[in-house]
Amino acid sequence: MKTQVPKTIRIVLATIVFLLSTLFFCDFIHRMPVAWHGLMHIQLVPAVLSGSIGILIFLFLLAVLFGRIYCSVICPMGILQDILSWFTRRGKKKNRKKRWYHYTRPYNAVRYTLLGMCILFLTVGISTPLLYLDPYSNFGRIAVNLFRPVAIGGNNVVNRIALLFNNYDFYQITIHTVTTASLILALAALLTVGMLAVWRGRLFCNLICPVGSFLGLLSKFALFRVRIDSSKCNGCGLCAKACKAECIDSKGQTIDYSRCVACFNCLDRCTKQALSYTPPALVGTGLSRPPQSAVNRNRRAFIATSTAMAVTLPLIPVWAKGKQPADATQLAPITPPGSRSLKRFKEKCTACHLCITHCPMQILKPAGFNFGWEYAFKPHLVFYENAFCNYNCTICTQICPNRAIEPLELPEKQTTQIGIAQFDVNLCVVYVDNTSCGACAEHCPVKAVRMEPYQGSLTLPHMYPELCVGCGGCESICPVRPVKAIHVLPSAVHGTAERPQEEEVEQINADDLDFGF
Hints:
It is built from 23 helices and twelve strands. The chain is mostly helical.
């Protein structure tokens, strides 16, 4: 049937997007092409934060032409909700009862108030509401902190089984990047979205999600929309039972286009062919128009939303100021190269954790609340044993969709000073135990740590801060425990380090060498 074609196309495209997005977030062996990060850049919130005008224009035209098709095809969180609700078998027999959707009134006051608050907070440089409400960022945290560990666990099980048969194609992988705080947040997001999806389909999209609320404003004017031909409609209500957005009023023959996510489930459910996904010119009569009562409700919701926004706006700077950490000397996080400054990174990053997945050295780790509420769950550099920021790596600067980490060419990255190493001579094994070491100097790629004469044949590390880029090579290799003798202090504003001068190599004439034969 022709009515099944739009739904089939939607399911195929959504499946491709969801699989690619999930694989890119869960890639623990780093086999996915880095170029695939473009799939994340077409998400609405990252496009807004990165200032990607071309993508924003594309998404705007998509909504104006086809309605909220973004929510059913491009948004991975929306597709995840469809998968979860599909597993509940709505509309099929279960325990001799049928579980259907039904039309419900919109909660415009709630959804537009949340949208307005997100916009207002963003105008003063606070991205925290988006961190918790943005569907893309929530999906990223779910994938990285829940799906990815499960995939790694499965790999480790396969590895153990393969070893029993002397097969060494697999290898054990240790999870370094999941913290208790990030795990709890991801689990809470999955449970919340999952329960809402099982209970009421796309309730999260039409009540909490600011992206859905914003696109809902545009979809009211969409050219292609699901339309009801009243001359054919008999009011059977099958379309309303299939509508996971619960936006079809079959009795009043109206559709709330601000909530319709263009899933097309209603088209193939209608037995009278009274529904069509067409421009208005192709429908003779019976166009779906909202009743006057709905218009009045929308007007009241707009007034309530505007009032809430007006009351909230003057309180935002006060709240933001009051929530700053009381201790100004509190240790700050080391932000990735390309983030430019701590302030900018906090404003741009919504903690999708994509950079955490793709860091080949696994030194990016989600923070808890130890750096304040504004930095909660956002990535920071932690130098593990024998792990540091690779001097020749720029992967995190390439894939960030929010441009919280700006793209850096390798020469610029190699001189970006994300921190400066500090040396405590009172902890160094050379000073304490009178034994040779020099590990920090050997692992410094820019020669910011050099061994200089100390006592007799012993040499002691000496710092050259102007050369240090804060890569953590020295800290990661330092053998001192529990507090290392050398550690990186973060730079609140990233500086530019001097390039180390290349050592002159003495030219030797091979003819002058006597090898004894």
